[in-house]
Specification:
By secondary structure, the chain is an alpha+beta fold. The chain folds into two domains: 91 residues, hpI Integrase, Chain A, CATH 1.10.443; 58 residues, no CATH class. Helix content is 53%, strand content 13%. It contains seven helices and five strands; from the N terminus they run H-E-E-E-H-E-E-H-H-H-H-H. The strands form two sheets. The chain has a three-stranded antiparallel sheet. Strand 2 and strand 3 form a beta hairpin. Helix 4 runs antiparallel to helix 5. It is globular. 7% of the residues are buried.
Amino acid sequence: VSELADLRMEDINIKERLIDVIRKGNKEDSVWITPIALNDLEKYMEIRDSKYAPGKELKNVFLSKYKHTAQPLSVRAIQDIVEKYTKAYGKRMSPHKLRHTLANKLYMEEKDSLQVMQQLGHTSQDTALLYTQLGETTIKDSLGRLGKNKE
């Protein structure tokens, strides 16, 4: 979540769909973003200045307003927003659970734990594999397909 809270305007490369982030331990990294996320980010950036009037000195991407003054969103505020809106859609999730879901979906799409490792900023594939646990439905469906292939 701190990567999101610390995100600055100059960290975003729209053309390349790439965002520069600072990981744990002050490690610089870059992550790709999905076309859908990029589209949403572009829409937000179009209204950011008119909604928050941050001035030139405030470079954080995600802002809130307190007493008519733009401020960077805090880690806690981001956690609260994620929980509020996921709950409103009937599936309360934390930012960590969203990260886990992204990793799982990426793994299910590509079957490449190295890609997951790089996207999450892990230095070990073993750590990234923790995010790629298969759900019971996935295992059940796979076993069902195995049985059909033998018939």
